[in-house]
Amino acid sequence: MVNAGFYGWDGEQEVDVFVNDFTLYGEGRDSLLYDSKNSVSSFSFPMDMNALSSTMILRADSLVDTLIINYAVVPVLVSYECGFTNTFEVSGLSYTRHLIDSISMINNVANVDNEENLKIFL
Amino acid sequence: MKKTLKYSSNLLALLAVMFQLNAQDGMRVRGPRISYDLASLTLLYFDPDRMVYTISVDYEMKQDIYPVIDLGYQHVKISRDNYHYASSGMFTRIGADINMLNYNKQVDVYEMMYVGGRYGLSLFNQQADNITIPDPYWGDFSDGQIEKYNLHTHWISVVGGMRAEVFRNFFMGWSVFLNIKFYQSDTKGMDPYNIPGFGKGANRATATFNYTISYRIPMQKYTPKIKAGKK
C-alpha cells in the first residue's frame, strides 16, 4: 500500500491541497478504489503483489493522470500466528502531467503503516 | 542367551569396579559428566513444530567448581495454510557452575545446588515458502518465498539448579536459565520462531528450563582441599 498526499506551493512553503471529484483505480481493474464527491487531500493505493509495477489512473477536477510505480516485493513476517505481508521497495516512478506537476518520493518503502511515501504536487 | 549373560556379567563387573573406586574414604571421584536434557521431550506436547536435542559435559575441576559446555541442535518445521517455515541450527553454551551446598564434613557427596553463568552462541538458518497473502483487489499473492539464509545470536545466561546422585555416578537434576541477548544478526524482516538454545526469537530476554539425566565417567580420584566452613 503506497500512501500519497496532494501538495501545492504558496510561494514560500508547501501546503496541503484538496481536490474534488476524485476517482482512483488500478489499470485493468473494474472497481474504483476512490469515488469521492468530497474534497480529498491524500489517498492509499494497493499495489499488485504479483507484479513488479502497478499503474494507477487518478482523476480529479476533470483532469486524468496515469502514475506507474516500479518496485520489488519483499515478504515480511507479521507474526507466526497471522503469517506474512508484503512490503514494496519503490525503485522508480513515471507519470503523465495533466493534473500532476511533479512527484517527490519521500519514503521508498511502502508497507502496512500509514507513513506517507509520495508527495504529489499539483 | 549366553552372550547376553556374558555382557551382563561384564557390565556388573565394570559397575562393581566403579563402585569400589567411588567408595574409598576421603577421596572424591571425578571425571567428565555427560548430561542429556529430557525437558525437550515436553515439546512433543507443547510445541510439536519444534524439537531440541541438548547434551552437556561438565567436569569437577576442583571441589564445587564445574566448567561446563552445552551442545545442542534444534529444528523447526511449521506448516500453515498461508505459509511454510523451516529453521535448523546448533548452539553452544560455555561457562561454569559453582556448588553452593555445604558438605558438612562429607567428602564423598556429589549433590549440588548451584549457580552459574554461560556465554551462548547459536548458528542457524531459516526460510519460508508457500507464502500466501489475500488481496481482494489485484488477486491473491501466492508462492512467495524467503530463501534460506544464515543467522547468529549471542547471549549470556545466569543459571540456577539442583542435581542429585540417584545411583553411583548417575545423576538427575533440573536447572533454569535466564538468558539475555546481546547480539542478533540481521533477521531480514523475519524474527526467528525460536533461536536454538535461547528461546523465542523476538524476545530480548528469555527463561528456559532443563531437566537432565547424567552419567559421570569415574576416571580419577583425588583428595580435595577442604575449604573453611565445609569441614
Report on the architecture of this protein.
The complex is a heterodimer of chains A (122) and B (231). Chain A is an all-beta fold and 122 residues long. Chain A has one domain (2-112). Chain A has no helices and eleven strands. Chain A has strands spanning 2-9, 14-16, 22-26, 34-36, 42-45, 53-60, 63-79, 83-95, 102-105, 109-110, 118-121. In chain A, the strands form two sheets. Chain A has a six-stranded antiparallel sheet with strand order 4-3-6-7-8-10, with no helix packed on it. In chain A, strands 1, 2, 5, 9 and 11 form a five-stranded mixed sheet that branches. The radius of gyration of chain A is 15 Å and the shape is globular. The two termini of chain A are 22 Å apart. In chain A, 24% of the residues are buried. The mean pLDDT of chain A is 90. Chain B has 231 residues and is mainly β. Chain B has a single domain (2-222), classed as Porin (Beta Barrel), CATH 2.40.160. An eight-stranded antiparallel β-barrel of chain B has the order 2-3-4-5-6-7-8-11. At the A-B interface, β7 and β8 of A face β6 and β7 of B.
Question: What is this structure's SSE topology?
Answer:
The complex is a heterodimer of chains A (122) and B (231).
Chain A: E1 2-9, E2 14-16, E3 22-26, E4 34-36, E5 42-45, E6 53-60, E7 63-79, E8 83-95, E9 102-105, E10 109-110, E11 118-121
Parallel strand pairs in A: 1-11
Antiparallel strand pairs in A: 1-2, 1-5, 3-4, 3-6, 6-7, 7-8, 8-10, 9-11
Chain B: H1 2-23, E1 28-30, E2 33-37, H2 43-46, E3 50-58, E4 65-80, E5 83-99, E6 112-133, E7 141-167, E8 170-184, E9 194-195, E10 199-200, E11 205-216, E12 220-222
Antiparallel strand pairs in B: 1-12, 2-3, 2-11, 3-4, 4-5, 5-6, 6-7, 7-8, 8-11, 9-10
